[in-house]
Amino acid sequence: MAEARAGGCCPPMDLFRSEAMQLVQLIIPIESAHQTVSNLGDLGLIQFKDLNADKSPFQRTYAAQIKKFGEMARKLRFFREQMVKEGITPLTKPGAQSEIDVDDLEVKLGELEAELVEMNANNEKLQRSYNELVEYKLVLNKAGEFFSSALRNATALQKELESQQTGEESLDTPLLMDREILNDPSKQVKLGFITGLVPKEKSMPFERIIFRATRGNVYIKLAAVEEPVDDPVSGEKVEKNVFVVFYSGEKAKTKILKICEAFGANRYPFTEDFGKQIQMISEVRVVLLSDVSGRISEMKAAIDAGLFHRSHLLQTIGDQFVQWNTLVRNEKSIYHTLNMLSLDVTKKCLVAEGWSPVFGSKQIQDALQRAAFDSNSQVGTIFQVLHTTELPPTYFCTNKFTSAFQDIVDAYGVAKYQEANPGVYTIITFPFLFAIMFGDWGHGICLLLAALVFIIREKKLSGQKLGDITEMTFGGRYVILMMALFSIYTGVIYNEFFSVPFELFAPSAYACRDLSCRDATTAGLIKVRPTYPFGVDPVWHGSRSELPFLNSLKMKLSILIGVTQMNLGIILSYFNATYFKNSLNIWFQFIPQLIFLNSLFGYLSLLIIVKWSTGSQADLYHVMIYMFLSPTDELGENQLFPKQKTVQLVLLLLALVSVPWMLLPKPFLLKMQHKARHQGESYTPLQSTEESLQLETNHDSHGHEEFEFSEVFVHQMIHTIEFVLGAVSNTASYLRLWALSLAHSELSSVFYEKVLLLAWGYNNILILLIGFIVFVFVTVGVLLVMETLSAFLHALRLHWVEFQNKFYEGDGYKFYPFSFGSVNYEDE
C-alpha cells in the first residue's frame, strides 16, 4: 500500500467517500516561481485559487508573458492549418527531443511564419498568373474560332453581293445607300467588343442583365468550355463559358464593364482590327500556342518547385510540432497560474493558495524542493496547511473502468465533500437495472462484442479524433461491457435468445398430458421431471399463459428490486449522518423514513416472498387496498400467515406516526440549539447538524442572524411531503422495469415470428435471404440501438431520482488540479 501511495493517485481509500482535502499555502521566491509551478503542473495535485480575482487580465503581473505565448500559439495554429491543407500529420512521438530555449523558439517561429507566408504569397501569385494564362488561351481559341467563322461568312456574303451587282436587280438587291456603306469603309458603324470568361451558372443572368442595361443594343456570343478551369481569384474548379459582347458607344462599354465586374467575369484583351485579328488567330494557331504553352510549362515548373519547398518546410515543422506545441501550451498555462498568485509586500515572493489531497503532501514538498534546487534558489518554498471553514472540492481517484460510472453520478450533481458516493453502487446496480429491461442473452452477446471491439482497440482509438457519438460510446465502453454481461445473465434467467427459449441446463420439467396439449394452457401440462434448475422453464414460452406468468413474475421482481434499492438509499443517509455527526438526521430523518417505507412497501415485498414460498392464491391487490380502507376487516382467503391482521394494524400505525415524526421535532430542536449557541458568553460551535453548521458559517460572515423558524419549518414540511408522496410514486416508478422488459421481449418475438419465421415458411432462398437481412436490420436498429438507449435512460432516471434523492445532496464542486496533462487534453 505504501508503494501505491508513492505512485500518486492511489491512496488507501475506496470510492465510498472523496479524498481528504486540505487548503495549503505556498510562499514561493520569485526566482524559483516558474520552476515550482512547472513541477506542480507535472505532479497535478494542487487546484490553485485565484488571489487576484479583482484584477483584470491586463493588470496582472505576467500579462506580457501570456501575450507572448498567445502569439506563439497563434503561429503554431497557423502551422497546423497549413499542414492539414498539405495532408501532413505531425509526428506524435518525435525521435530525439532536445532542450528548447523559449526565446530561441519565439525567434524561430517568427522566421518560419514569415518564410511560410512569403512562400504562400508567391505561390498564390504564380498560381493566379498560371490560371489567368490558361483562361487567356481558352479565350483566344474560342473567340478566334468565332471570328474566323464570322470572317468566312462575311467574305462569302461580299462575293455574293458583288456577283449580284453585275446581274439583274431583284428584291434582294441592296439599296443605293446600303451599297455606298458597303463600298465606303468610312461610313460603316464601328463596333467594339469585350471578351472573357463568366461562370456557367451565371451565364443566363449575365446575358439578361447586359441586354436590359443596353436596351438590346448589343450582340452576345457564348461558347462553353468543355472542362472546369481553376478560377484565378478563388482557386477553385469552376465551369465557365467564353463570351464575346459587341457594343456601340462608350456608355455601353462602361455599363458592360461594370456588369462584368459584378458577375466576377474575367476579361482578356483581343485586338479590334480585322487584319490584326486574322494575324492573331494565326499566331494562336501556330506561334502563340507554342509561346503560351512554353510560358505555362515554365510557370508550372516554378509552382511545383515552390510547392516542393513548401512541403519540405512543413514536413520539417511537423517533425518538431508536437514538442513545440506542448512547450508553448505548458508555458502559457504556467504564466496563467502565476497570474493567480499574489505578490507579497516586498515583491520578492509570490503567495499561492490551493486545495490538495492530504495524501499528496509529501509529493508536493518533494516537487518544491526539486524546484528550489533546479533554479539555484537560496531560499526554498514554504509549504503550510491553512485551517478554514470553506467547503473543499470533491476528488475521487478513478481509473478507466470506474470513471465512466462516476461520470454518470456527476452528471446529476457532484458529491458534497466526503458525502457517501453512489458511484460505488452504480457500478453494479446501473447495469443490473438496465439488464432487467434488456434481458436477452442473444442481444447481450451483440452488445458484448461491440464493447470488446472498443476495449481491444482502446489504445489506438484513444489517440484518434472521433465523432461525437463514437467518442461518447468509446468513453462508456466499460459501462456497455457491464450492461452486456448483466444482459446475458438476465437473458439466461428469462431464457430468451432473440426471443427463442432453449433447454440450456436441463430438459423442461413439464410434458404434455395428451397429444392435443400443444395449444392448451398449462393445465394440459403435467410435471414429469424436477424443477428447471435456473431461470424460466422454456415450456412457458409460446403457451397461452406466458404473458400472465411473466407479467406477474417481472412486476413483482420490479417491486422487490425497487424497495431494496430505496432502502439502500435510506441506509446510506444514516452513514452520511453518522459521518457528519448529525444526530438529528438519524433520529428524525433516517428512522422515520425507514419505518414509513417498510411499513407499506417493505410489507408488500414480504407478502410477495411469502406468496411465492407458500404457493398461496391470495390477492395482494386486495390485501394492500383494504389495509388502508378497512384495516379491521378479516382477511379470509387472502390471509398468508397467522396474526396478519394485527401485523397490518401495527404497520399502519407506525406509518401514520412516522409522518409527524419527520415533520415536527426537527425544526423545534434546531431552534433550541440556535438559542443555546447564542446565549450568554458561551459561544461554542455546535457541529451536531448540517443546519447548525450552516448557521455558524452565516454567523462568521454576517454576524448574528435571527433564526427563521418559519422558513425551517416550511423546508422540513416540503421534505416530509416529498418523501411520503415519493415513497408511493418511486415504488410505482420501478414498474418501468417490468414494462420495458415486456416491451423488449414482445418486440423481439414479433421480429422473429413475423419476419424470420415468415420468410422461412416460403421455402425460397431469395425470400429467406431478404427476410434474414430485414431481421438483422430491425434487430440492430430497433432492439440494439433504440431499445438500448431507452433502457439506458430509464436506468439513469431510476438512479438519479428514485435512489439518489434518499441520501445524495450533490451540491459539491469538482477538484480540478493544475496539470499539464489536462491542459493538453482540453486544448485538443
UniProtKB/TrEMBL annotation:
<keyword id="KW-0406">Ion transport</keyword>
<feature type="transmembrane region" description="Helical">
    <location>
        <begin position="646"/>
        <end position="664"/>
    </location>
</feature>
<dbReference type="InterPro" id="IPR002490">
    <property type="entry name" value="V-ATPase_116kDa_su"/>
</dbReference>
<dbReference type="GO" id="GO:0051117">
    <property type="term" value="F:ATPase binding"/>
</dbReference>
<feature type="coiled-coil region">
    <location>
        <begin position="95"/>
        <end position="136"/>
    </location>
</feature>
<feature type="transmembrane region" description="Helical">
    <location>
        <begin position="587"/>
        <end position="610"/>
    </location>
</feature>
<comment type="similarity">
    <text>Belongs to the V-ATPase 116 kDa subunit family.</text>
</comment>
<dbReference type="GO" id="GO:0046961">
    <property type="term" value="F:proton-transporting ATPase activity, rotational mechanism"/>
</dbReference>
<keyword id="KW-0375">Hydrogen ion transport</keyword>
<keyword id="KW-1133">Transmembrane helix</keyword>
<keyword id="KW-0175">Coiled coil</keyword>
<feature type="transmembrane region" description="Helical">
    <location>
        <begin position="432"/>
        <end position="456"/>
    </location>
</feature>
<feature type="transmembrane region" description="Helical">
    <location>
        <begin position="557"/>
        <end position="575"/>
    </location>
</feature>
<feature type="transmembrane region" description="Helical">
    <location>
        <begin position="477"/>
        <end position="494"/>
    </location>
</feature>
<dbReference type="GO" id="GO:0007035">
    <property type="term" value="P:vacuolar acidification"/>
</dbReference>
<keyword id="KW-0472">Membrane</keyword>
<comment type="function">
    <text>Essential component of the vacuolar proton pump (V-ATPase), a multimeric enzyme that catalyzes the translocation of protons across the membranes. Required for assembly and activity of the V-ATPase.</text>
</comment>
<protein>
    <recommendedName>
        <fullName>V-type proton ATPase subunit a</fullName>
    </recommendedName>
</protein>
<feature type="transmembrane region" description="Helical">
    <location>
        <begin position="765"/>
        <end position="786"/>
    </location>
</feature>
<dbReference type="GO" id="GO:0000220">
    <property type="term" value="C:vacuolar proton-transporting V-type ATPase, V0 domain"/>
</dbReference>
<dbReference type="Pfam" id="PF01496">
    <property type="entry name" value="V_ATPase_I"/>
</dbReference>
<dbReference type="InterPro" id="IPR026028">
    <property type="entry name" value="V-type_ATPase_116kDa_su_euka"/>
</dbReference>
<keyword id="KW-0812">Transmembrane</keyword>
<keyword id="KW-0813">Transport</keyword>
